[in-house]
TrEMBL record:
Upper taxonomic lineage: Eukaryota, Metazoa, Ecdysozoa, Arthropoda, Chelicerata
Keyword rRNA-binding: no
PANTHER family in the cross-refs: STEROID 17-ALPHA-HYDROXYLASE/17,20 LYASE, STEROID 17-ALPHA-HYDROXYLASE_17,20 LYASE
PROSITE patterns documented for this protein: CYTOCHROME_P450
Protein's name according to its UniProt entry: Cytochrome P450 2B6-like
Length: 588
């Protein structure tokens, strides 16, 4: 009986091997057909693609820079079943991000992005949308204004002085990483909600935890983003990061609420409205609002403040409408043409809305949009979160490189100190001083090139079928721009692996030009939103630091390792120790 059942079963499944071979052939053929749609690159195996090539310790950005020699500046690597187009040189990056403007402006849906933005719409990981555009404009403007403010210069001075005081107490060579973290987080926390951390307490640890965890748990990216079923093996790590992120957001929200309680609404938001309304009164109502209003930085920052100050709803709505008009000149033009032809110069009355359907539709859409984009607390928190997570990690990594480079090149440090001493003496630096300190500014620019802390920037997505460097690339393809390769491209930089601030100088002045193949902050409409703030921060920090102390490698250490650690998401220096000595007793 049993043998009968077994032989029947064998007869029944006799077709299985045939089906298996058929399926395998189908998968292989489909894989190769799919490959043809993308630029050629290293040969991918079915299912794993080129993942096996990343088994060794070489960071992905260095490996792909090397592949360029064989496959050219634009090629496809297959990360599991996912094609990823890598753009290694500056000309192709410029074509994709500047010349073709919006073609590669999207972001991909990734587990990484979701972990960071949670349920909120953010700027960094948000796909291209009108909401992203408006949020970015507001935050960009606020950040740029803040970068040149006296408030920032004073804050940096205070925070650096406090850090120097602590570092000077170290009697043995020490790893400066924690001091650098505290310094950078204190600048952000002080400006966002007037808070300082004297030591690495629990709340401070909560702020730095998500980024830290990401680098330790997923140093080469999240496997589930490449091969979906691998997610089951790493889901526990995702939960860990999600939990850390919840705690991080809880700190931000709590701090924001505290800050809001003591916040005195300034007259500024009203000033905006008074300005608009007075213009409206003296001339013709809609006309002036529609034709003369120019979106400008002033307005953006005031709007930003007005949201966090909690102005009343109709004021906010008016602000949004004006912002949207400035942001979409074509819509504004259509509305103006409609009003002009329906009313001429006659002042509008309520009933005119039937004569101006497009303008009424704009009003309705603004009301819808205004509720879609988070207001008040949420909005402010989103922007703060963004600045916190996008800005602190890159800035602290950059400072880690800069301190290492100062210790490694005592002659460069000496030249910087002499320049600062003669230009500023003991006076605390302000933004404008960078013109008085060209060598120090050149050091900053060279450090950004040499360190390239965000070597792949953030991933991009093609929003349409497009072309880069003569290759067709379908819509919805992930594209990575290798910023590391471009900052070290020998076609543009002489001896690219040598650290040399002089390359940015001519006759002891900063070269007055745009540097090709210089992309520490990326390029195009997705370029780093905090570039100005990061440059301002880093300049002020380094100058204030050097005014007060000398940084050296420990006795006997000839030179430090200057290659990045073997992780792929960021360019991180190997751990190192320094000795800090007081120069002039400025800080006690
Ligand atoms: C040395 C410091 C920094 C470096 C090297 C750096 C570098 C970058 C790079 C390479 C990108 C990706 C660009 C792309 O997707 O093509 C980026 C994006 C971004 N950065 Fe920075 N960044 C730094 C500091 C900051 C700071 C201080 C802030 C906050 C004020 C900030 C906010 C952002 C935001 C919001 C984005 C996303 C922009 C978007 O998607 O539209 N960054 N950054």
């Amino acid at each position: 009986m049993l043998s009968q059942v077994l032989s029947k079963l064998l007869n029944d499944v006799g077709w299985l091997p045939t089906v298996f071979v058929g399926l395998l052939t189908f998968v292989v053929i489909r894989h190769f057909m799919k490959r043809k749609k993308y630029p050629p690159g290293p040969f991918p195996l079915p299912i794993v693609g080129n993942l096996l090539a990343f088994r060794d310790d070489t960071p992905q950005f260095i490996k792909t820079a090397e592949w360029q020699k064989k496959y050219g500046p634009v090629f496809t690597m297959w990360m599991g079943g996912r094609p990823v187009v890598v753009v290694n040189n500056w000309d192709a990056t410029r074509e994709a991000l500047t010349v073709r403007r919006n073609d590669v402006i999207g972001r991909n849906k990734t587990i990484l992005g979701n972990l960071f933005k949670q349920e909120d719409e953010d700027i960094m990981f948000a796909d291209y949308s009108p909401e992203w555009e408006v949020l970015r404009k507001i935050a960009h403007s606020a950040v740029r204004k803040y970068a040149v403010s006296e408030e920032l210069a004073e804050l940096v001075q205070d925070v650096v002085d406090a850090s120097v005081r602590k570092m000077l107490k170290e009697k043995e060579p020490f790893d400066p990483t924690l001091y650098i973290y505290l310094l950078v987080y204190n600048i952000i926390a002080s400006s966002a909600f007037g808070k300082r951390y004297e030591e690495a307490n629990q709340e401070f640890m909560n702020l730095k935890e998500p980024n830290e965890l990401l680098l330790t748990e997923f140093s080469s990216g999240i496997p589930g983003d490449l091969i979906p079923f691998l997610r089951i093996f790493t889901i526990h790590k995702e939960w860990k990061i999600k939990k850390a992120m919840d705690e991080y957001l809880a700190v931000l929200k709590r701090e924001f609420m505290e800050h809001k309680k003591s916040y005195k609404p300034s007259r500024l938001p009203h000033y905006v409205l008074i300005r608009i309304l007075s213009e409206v009164r003296v001339t013709h109502q809609l006309r002036i609002t529609l034709t003369k209003f120019q979106l400008n930085d002033d307005f953006c920052i005031l709007l930003f403040i007005s949201h966090s100050a909690g102005t009343d709803t109709s004021e906010r709505m008016l602000s949004w409408m004006i912002l949207l008009l400035g942001n979409y000149p074509n819509i504004q033009k259509l509305m103006y043409e409609e009003i002009e032809s329906a009313l001429g110069n006659r002042a509008p009355v309520q009933d005119d809305k039937h004569l101006c359907p497009y303008t009424s539709a704009f009003l309705m859409e603004s009301l819808r949009f205004g509720t879609v984009v988070p207001f008040g607390l949420d909005h402010r928190t989103t922007v703060d979160t963004e600045i916190n997570s996008a800005g602190t990690d890159t800035s602290q990594l950059m400072l880690r490189w800069m301190i290492l480079l100062l210790g490694n090149y005592p002659n460069i440090q000496k030249k910087m100190y002499e320049e600062i001493e003669s230009a500023l003496g003991n006076r605390a630096p302000v933004q404008d001083d960078k013109h008085l300190c060209p060598y120090t500014s050149a050091f900053l620019m060279e450090s950004l090139r040499f360190g390239t802390v965000a070597p792949f920037g953030l991933d991009h997505r093609t929003t349409v079928d497009t072309e880069i460097d003569g290759y067709k690339i379908p819509k919805d393809t992930m594209v990575l721009f290798n910023l590391w390769a471009q900052n070290r491209d020998a076609a543009y930089w002489k001896d690219p692996d040598i650290f040399n601030p002089d390359r940015f100088l001519t006759n002891n002045k900063l070269k007055n030009e745009r540097f090709n193949s210089y992309v520490p902050f990326g390029q195009g409409r997705r370029m780093c939103l905090g570039e100005k703030l990061a440059m301002a921060d880093l300049f002020l920090i380094i100058v204030r630091l050097l005014q007060q102390c000398q940084i050296s490698l420990p006795d006997g250490a000839e030179s430090a390792r200057l290659d990045p650690q073997p992780v792929s998401l960021a360019a991180i220096p190997f751990p190192y120790k320094i000795v800090v000595t007081s120069r002039n007793g400025l800080v006690k």
